[in-house]
Amino acid sequence: MTTSGSPGSLEAPGAPKAAGAPGPAAAVPGPEGSTGTPGSTAPLLSAAGLHITFPGRHGAAPARAVDGVDLDIRPGEIVALVGESGCGKTTLARSLLGLVPPTAGRVTFGGAPLDYATAALKAYRKRVQLVLQDPTGSLNPRHTVYDAVAEGLRIHGSTGRFADEGAAVADALARAGLRPPERFFLRYPHELSGGQRQRVVIAGALVLEPELIVADEPVASLDASVRGEILALLLKLRDELGLAALVVTHDLGLAWNIADRVAVMYLGRIVETGPVEQVLTAPRHPYTQALLSVLPEADGEEVVLTGEPPDPSRIPSGCRFHARCQVLASGAAERAGVAEACRTQDPSVLDGSGASQVACHWALARSEG
Q1: Residue 201 and residue 132: Cα distance in Å, rounded?
Q2: 66-78 confidence digits (pLDDT tens)
């Protein structure tokens, strides 16, 4: 298992959410300054029936990295995409950014299908920005902080609502928590702490005034002492700017502290989704239960999953989790009368609406019983 406990001083599932970390019913500003509740407005970004397949090597079967995903992200909403390494979450995120065209299905932004022509993608990436997990690797060591933040402005040839480049860079650095911004203009990455470097990366995304950011493990490489600061910054940006975010992580403690909604991914497909408090305090899918059980603060016994996730080129029949499922192994699925379905019937793809949903024969049988 690759799931770690909650980082640093972050709270774990089951504890009250930190101040300033609104739950899924909190009112958040929309992109034009309006307010609304995540789930009550039209999606900003949407994936429908998304499949991403990579050719197999040396005649092997193709790898189904993303194997049927529906996912909506609404203005001002923070969605955490969680799962083990290799489950397909980074490939899904890259496809939502337009970096990996889907094999089937489509991505829409603001109601319009994503256009993969070069000029259209350039315009799209101004509205949707990526924040990577390793700020050191994201920053050119030969570029000053000013040049690193200004790079996006120069690529797109625009300073947005600002009169000049310097004003736009200063505003982005200040919003990212580097104040006074002029103090950082001529510094180089090696002169900054890890937390400061990550703030520079965030400023480089903010300078283009995006509507959504995709943050791939945004605090994984940081010391525990600064992880909470970066997560608090992302929440502040959501509240001040109406910024939506997809946060890709294996860390359920992080998801608890920052997300309105969580989507749990296993072997290329979302297997459980819903409001973060509901999913992480009352998980329905055995895989979600196993991920949560390894947190230090979890109640009950740790669930030890057998084996590794199957090869995405050889996805098993039936429920894709059944070969590792503790519920099936314990006989509980047999007693519920769904063991054969677990082995032979593929659960339906969950829709992207954000409602509480689970792709599990046993969990559905329990809810109907």
Answers
A1: 8
A2: 999 999 999 999 9
Helix ranges (H only) for the chain are 89-96, 118-127, 135-138, 145-156, 165-175, 194-206, 224-241, 252-258, 276-281, 286-293, 326-330, 332-335, 339-344, 361-368
* Distance of alpha carbon 93 from alpha carbon 216, whole angstroms: 8
Supply 284's token pair. Answer: 């329905």
Average pLDDT over residues 187-207: 96
Q: How confident is the model at residue 137 (pLDDT cuts 50, 70, 90)?
A: confident
As a whole number of angstroms, the distance between CA 216 and CA 219 comes to: 9
Contact criterion met (CB below 8 Å) for 69 and 90: no
Ranges of each domain in the chain: 64-276, 280-368
For the domain made up of 64-276, give the CATH fold.
Rossmann fold (3.40.50)
**Cβ-based burial of 266 (10 A; exposed 0-12, middle 13-18, buried ≥19):** buried
> Residues 45, 128: contact at Cβ < 8 Å?
yes
Residue 5 has pLDDT above 50, yes or no: no
For 79, list phi and psi in degrees, rounded to 5.
Answer: -115, 130
Residue 100 burial (C-beta neighbours within 10 Å; 0-12, 13-18, 19+):
middle
Mean pLDDT estimate for the chain: 88
In a 3-state reduction of DSSP, which class is residue 45? strand
Which range, 17-21, 54-58, 306-310, is most confident?
Answer: 54-58
d(CA 246, CA 235): 12
Whole-model pTM above 0.85?
Answer: yes
